[in-house]
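Backbone-to-sequence.
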């Protein structure tokens, strides 16, 4: 694919296969670039189109991408980095551990246990030795 831009970045997006372009947060591999901040083969996390290839305009600094450390994640699926290792995981961990400061044997009630953050709080709480009680909005959840 030819790009007529001196600073554009083309990314190969993960996952792929959605017939319409939907924007969201994801992990991508840089497959072509003229931007000095990125090189071919870099993995980046940020706002992308969920499509096989995305063209990122030269003003990419308006929506910065975070470089993914390949060495630290070599045995971790990329999908993990796009979900619980980012926003949901940080929110869950910081809220429970840094703010809640739970002690082993305590009981925690999670009012939204069906969502990403609630599920992770419950799992972290169990690992820390808490009794976990969770609820959801419906029986289906």
């Amino acid at each position: 694919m030819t790009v007529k831009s001196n600073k554009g970045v083309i990314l190969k997006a993960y996952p792929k296969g959605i017939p319409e372009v939907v924007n969201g947060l994801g992990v991508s591999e840089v497959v072509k670039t003229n931007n000095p901040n990125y090189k071919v083969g870099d993995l980046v996390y940020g706002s992308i189109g969920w499509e096989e290839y995305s063209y990122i305009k030269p003003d990419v600094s308006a929506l910065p991408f975070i470089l993914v450390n390949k060495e630290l994640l070599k045995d971790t699926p990329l999908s993990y980095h796009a979900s619980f290792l980012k926003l949901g995981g940080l929110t869950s961990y910081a809220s429970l551990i840094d703010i809640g400061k739970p002690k082993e044997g305590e009981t925690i009630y999670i009012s939204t246990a069906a969502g990403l953050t609630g599920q992770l709080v419950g799992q972290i709480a169990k690992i820390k030795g808490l009794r976990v009680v969770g609820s959801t909005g419906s029986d289906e959840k």
